[in-house]
């Protein structure tokens, strides 16, 4: 058994490949099942359950290369955590909602549920990867097994699944692992942390440039347009934090906790931003 003193987490390498979008094997479920409202993220209204007017018949996007300039920034932020291909090719065996229009409502409902479940799987993998506690890792594995069975089982079971109880169990474990991880960063005291750095904090537009924020709990915090350039976010709990237009140039997020691709996609950064190996630099960062 790996001990905490070995400085290795209990489950150091867990595969996340099934939790990455594979749009080529998806029936553009995010472009049909979900609705959106005209805003800074979308230039038009679209009701849920109807195809976007930019969607081609082969499920590709006709404006893929110019989504941001065309007012569809929200599309570049969204991530299904691999639910799209799972529903399209697994639950519906490769038969699209165009081929079988009667399947539309079930397919879209399954996608909505599977997307939440895949996101939970992503966070559980992260918790298992970061914890040194074998019991927490075991409970994470058990929850993952329950969720994997739900998304890989019968459609009727998935549609009847109560997500609230699962959400609550996953959340408890994520919080427990967060406390463990953050405590290790606060071992030398939390004097470096501002009292305002708390879960759900409104830090919109504030300046934390070049600050050491290690071990802070920013779960659900509003970091919209917050200046985090050159800051160190190692061991910071970022579960559900709102990163829209946050400035991340030269920041160190390589050991941040519960960071996701949609959060990065919503933020601004550059080549010098340090990211975890399992996340990608958004293309709009590369283009400046
Ligand atoms: S603009 Fe393109 S990516 Fe966005 S919802 Fe429409 S088809 Fe999908």
UniProtKB/TrEMBL annotation:
InterPro entries: 5peptide_repeat, Pentapeptide-BTB/POZ_domain. Pfam families: Pentapeptide. SUPFAM superfamilies: Pentapeptide repeat-like. This is Pentapeptide repeat-containing protein. It comes from Mycetocola zhadangensis. The lineage of its organism: Bacteria, Bacillati, Actinomycetota, Actinomycetes, Micrococcales.
